[in-house]
Amino acid sequence: MLKVGVLGAGHLGKIHLRLLNESKKYNLIGFYDSDEIHGKKAMDEFGYTYYDNINSLIDDVDVIDIVTPTLSHFDCAKKAIEKGKHVFIEKPITNTLDEAVSLLALEKKYGIKGQVGHVERFNPAFTAVKDAIKNPMFIETHRLAEFNPRGTDVPVVLDLMIHDIDAILSVVNSEVKTINASGVSVISKSPDIANARIEFENGCVANLTASRISLKNMRKSRFFQRDAYISVDFLEKKVEVVKMQDAPEQPGDFDMILQNAEGEKKQIYFENPDIESNNAILDELETFADAINNNTVPVVSLEQGTKALKVALQIIESF
């Protein structure tokens, strides 16, 4: 079992602490929080060992799980990596692109493993159809949330849209060509609603919308590709896969057949992939343990987290 320590005991940090404590792949040593009063309160409430010195915790573990505010991600990760510790960093990887690039250099220098917490990669609806998403040419995403003061210290792009940015980059095998975007601050001092259009070198276009001032919650992505339409509902954990193939010469009574202007006939059929219930946060943490133990590339590497941050920052700059 890998000895692990958690930095940050806020809302998400407490979830990580509970799951790491339950995991059979980790031995939870303890946690650190810069607010000593808050840290000791969490210790009294949950029984986890509280460290009042970040360096002491880093020294005692193999893996550091960073669940602190984004502004401190770089400093926390740098301390851990320079002591040869593997790091799991909640999204976004860092506050600036320069910081992310610096972490990549440190990762290589010290030979450690790093993973970024883009948890939607482990959403069972997405994993059920990811392999079926091949060369999509148009993608549309909507990530809408009711207002919650937590997270409004950063633009909605870094708070919500970055989940979809990362998922899109994982299935589009092409470099970004151009980005056009708009964002509006409604309640917060940073944009609360944003729309971005990303064009890739291979011709794929992605249209992303994110809002944290919606009257309802929605997390849907739609992928259009040759002879297929794939819809992923990240919130409800449902998928819809509609495919087309050349129509048989003698269609059955219940076959759905379409004929285009050129006279070509296509048969429409539906696929229903199995969706296995899971805990996505536990999965991302445990696959990181597997990557360390098996010396393989983490599912969401620091490099991939850096690419997602780069696109997110380009979107913000284009407002």
UniProtKB/TrEMBL annotation:
Pfam families: GFO_IDH_MocA, GFO_IDH_MocA_C3
Gene Ontology molecular-function annotations: nucleotide binding
Coiled coil: none
Ranges for domain GFO/IDH/MocA-like oxidoreductase: 156-216
SUPFAM superfamilies: Glyceraldehyde-3-phosphate dehydrogenase-like, C-terminal domain, NAD(P)-binding Rossmann-fold domains
Spans through the membrane: none
Domain Gfo/Idh/MocA-like oxidoreductase N-terminal: 2-118
Alphabetized InterPro entries for the sequence: Gfo/Idh/MocA-like_OxRdtase_N, Gfo/Idh/MocA_Oxidoreductases, GFO_IDH_MocA-like_dom, NAD(P)-bd_dom_sf
Name of this chain's protein: Putative dehydrogenase
Organism the protein comes from: Saonia flava
Source lineage: Bacteria, Pseudomonadati, Bacteroidota, Flavobacteriia, Flavobacteriales
